[in-house]
């Protein structure tokens, strides 16, 4: 396990670069020449139920209280999960081509582990590999040296994985769709093309699409026929946001928190306060020291050693959705106290050559910020959907 967990923050530290793709998902998939994947082959999946894989590793967390006290929090997967979860990971592949191959390297494994595995507390996990638009292609594009890449191939793969899941595993079960960055962009296209207004919509418990701009009508408050979630008992709804520090809002150049249409706004749903307003978040951050990423260690509590990959900090972070200057985003406030032993800040900014890229906000930790809340909501939605 440690072989690939050691690269968790290394790989996820690069995922922000894929956001440019996520803002313009394909409306209609284009035909591609590569052969289709066989999603009946377990090797084409990062996570499947009942398997020792990326989602079945140690998820013990250390809870760091405001006074610096620490305690281990064991993880327990649901014995008989009521619903399924279908996850698409963000831009993490360092494969040399424009599209990744179908080998699960440590980047893909780490993404599923850090962003998705904890959802096993409420659902059966399904996470397909797909031939995504790579970091290599993004670097080429951003430096003016583009390399050939098929922007539709990854979507087609995920669509095929979804269809295989529906035909072979779903059996009428509810399903929660979860993604981040490029993964959210791919799921956005999947929902628009294959779910919204289609028979599969009745199976959708909810969609959690983070780190991408989902256009919501200013008139109806809907994304197509899908409303924003405003209570944990609501089903068939959307949770989506892009996150920024409250004291560092998106600059005019930011690609996050805005959409092209004047009739729509980027969706923002606060998992810490679904009905609106401010609310505390229950994050599950990753501990740099235990991940072996080689970055500076966060001192979560002075004088205390944290040896788990996950760290929870009750009461440290709150958030509210803000709509200002043409941007709609989750404004995150850190309630540090210099007088206590706990950390007064959090990492999560995109940093290039020592300079914080403010237009990215807290993209690197979109998923982690409200993960505890998302899982709690998913559990309540699963019960509500099943009861119907």
UniProtKB/TrEMBL annotation:
<dbReference type="InterPro" id="IPR029058">
    <property type="entry name" value="AB_hydrolase_fold"/>
</dbReference>
<protein>
    <recommendedName>
        <fullName>Lysophospholipase</fullName>
    </recommendedName>
</protein>
<keyword id="KW-0732">Signal</keyword>
<dbReference type="Pfam" id="PF11288">
    <property type="entry name" value="DUF3089"/>
</dbReference>
<feature type="signal peptide">
    <location>
        <begin position="1"/>
        <end position="22"/>
    </location>
</feature>
<dbReference type="InterPro" id="IPR021440">
    <property type="entry name" value="DUF3089"/>
</dbReference>
């Amino acid at each position: 396990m440690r072989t690939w967990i050691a690269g968790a923050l290394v790989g996820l530290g690069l995922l922000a670069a894929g956001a440019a793709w996520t803002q313009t998902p394909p409306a209609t998939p284009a035909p591609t020449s590569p052969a289709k994947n066989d999603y009946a082959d377990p090797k084409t999946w990062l996570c499947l139920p009942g398997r020792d894989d990326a989602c079945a590793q140690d998820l013990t967390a250390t809870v760091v209280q405001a006074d610096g006290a620490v305690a281990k929090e064991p993880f327990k997967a649901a014995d008989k999960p009521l619903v399924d979860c279908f996850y698409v990971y963000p831009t993490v592949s360092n494969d040399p081509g424009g599209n990744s191959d179908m080998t699960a390297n440590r980047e893909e494994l780490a993404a599923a582990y850090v962003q998705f595995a904890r959802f096993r507390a409420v659902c059966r996990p399904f996470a397909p590999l797909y031939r995504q638009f790579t970091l290599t292609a993004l670097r080429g594009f951003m430096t003016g040296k583009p390399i050939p890449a098929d922007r539709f191939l990854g979507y087609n793969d995920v669509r095929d994985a979804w269809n295989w899941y529906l035909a072979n595993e779903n059996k009428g079960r509810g399903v929660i769709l979860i993604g981040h960055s490029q993964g959210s962009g791919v799921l956005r296209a999947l929902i628009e093309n294959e779910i919204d207004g289609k028979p599969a919509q009745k199976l959708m418990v909810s969609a959690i699409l983070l780190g991408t701009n989902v256009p919501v009508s200013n008139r109806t408050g809907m994304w197509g026929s899908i409303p924003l979630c405003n209570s944990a008992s609501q089903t068939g709804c959307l949770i989506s946001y892009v996150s920024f520090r409250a004291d560092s809002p998106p600059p005019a150049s930011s690609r996050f928190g805005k959409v092209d249409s004047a009739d729509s706004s980027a969706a923002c749903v606060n998992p810490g306060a679904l009905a609106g307003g401010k609310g505390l978040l229950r994050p599950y951050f990753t501990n740099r020291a235990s991940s072996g990423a080689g970055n500076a260690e966060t001192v979560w509590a002075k004088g205390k050693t944290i040896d788990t990959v996950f760290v929870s900090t009750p009461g440290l972070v709150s958030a509210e959705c803000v709509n200002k200057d043409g941007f709609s985003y989750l404004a995150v406030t850190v309630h540090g106290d210099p007088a206590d032993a706990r950390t007064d800040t959090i990492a999560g900014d995109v940093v290039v050559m020592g300079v914080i890229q403010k237009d990215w906000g807290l993209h690197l930790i979109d998923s982690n910020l409200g993960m505890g809340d998302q899982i709690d909501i998913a559990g309540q939605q699963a019960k509500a959907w099943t009861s119907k």
